[in-house]
Amino acid sequence: MTKSERKKRNNKSKDEQRFTADTAKLRKFKEPSKSSTFLDKMKARLSGGHFRMINEKLYTCTGKEALNYFQEEPSLFDLYHAGYKMQMSNWPQQPVNVIIDWLKKKSPSLVVADFGCGDALIAKSVKNKVYSLDLVSNDPNIIACDMSNTPLDDSSIDVAVFCLSLMGTNYQSYIKEANRVLKPGTGSNIVLDSGWLLIAEVKSRFDPNTGGANPEKFTNAISELGFKSVKKDFSNKMFILFYFTKKDKQNFKRKEIEWPLLKPCLYKRR
Ligand code: SAH
């Protein structure tokens, strides 16, 4: 191996290195009929490693870079989602279902935007008009975009949802975009129940004992943007749910907001 090849290899993540090595082994393997279990194992390892690699990429780049990444190779998006579903199947409860239950108790006339919708389960489960947004669209009902720059109109949405989707390093620009498209909220006013911002995130990202963000700092940053924190739900084992409403009067002369860093949520090799 030359010096530059070694350097290149050292710059790769462990999963990338494993992925390259596994692909090479798989290519060398000539007799699939004799050892299908070996092949199955290798394929599972390959897709598991590949999922973790894409996942790490999404947590360590901007939304714009993520959009380019999937535009160049859309099949990676399906691979990512197959792995994501597998991870989720280990969770006792999925945050998207908690959000669906919450929405079902609200008026079906509320217009919803699902930022980073994945399979668009919210749109499939409620009667409301739902704008489902994600980086790639395999379904005519999903709008493909980087969610820091959506085609939605100003003040046109009653409920903005981020369910495990604050992945990019520029996550604050997604929340600013939600602020732009949300109508002002009235919180407990049942007649005009708008301006809701719901954020579900992986609990470990908000555990200051393990390098996670302080949930208070996160709430304060969003409050400074012009939201009122209504509720924080820590009751689930795997995720936190934040409920905010957009304030009627926005503070345009606000000082620079200090957004806490949200650490990537990386999955362990099983
Ligand atoms: N909300 C869904 C999917 C969560 S997975 C659920 O709870 O089941 C996170 C999703 O966010 C992925 O589908 C990913 O593609 C999307 N995402 C991440 N960054 C994005 C961005 N900048 N713009 C649009 N979607 C994004």
Description:
This protein is α/β, with parallel strands linked by helices and 270 residues long. It has helices at 3-11, 14-28, 36-59, 63-72, 75-88, 95-104, 121-125, 171-181, 215-225, and strands spanning 112-115, 130-134, 142-144, 159-163, 196-202, 227-233, 239-246. It folds into two domains: 39-89, Arc Repressor Mutant, subunit A (Orthogonal Bundle); 95-246, Vaccinia Virus protein VP39 (Rossmann fold). Mean pLDDT is 86; it is low at 29-34. Bound molecules: S-adenosyl-L-homocysteine. S-adenosyl-L-homocysteine binds at residues 58, 63, 66, 84, 96, 116-118, 121, 133-135, 146-147, 163-165, 167-168.
Topology:
Layout: H1 3-11, H2 14-28, H3 36-59, H4 63-72, H5 75-88, H6 95-104, E1 112-115, H7 121-125, E2 130-134, E3 142-144, E4 159-163, H8 171-181, E5 196-202, H9 215-225, E6 227-233, E7 239-246
Parallel strand pairs: 1-2, 1-4, 2-3, 4-5
Antiparallel strand pairs: 5-7, 6-7
The structure holds S-adenosyl-L-homocysteine.
Organism: Arachis hypogaea (Peanut)
GO cellular component, one term: nucleolus
Biased composition (Basic residues): 1-11
Keywords for this entry:
270 residues, alpha/beta, Arc Repressor Mutant, subunit A, Rossmann fold, 2 domains, 7-stranded mixed sheet, 9 helices, globular, binds S-adenosyl-L-homocysteine
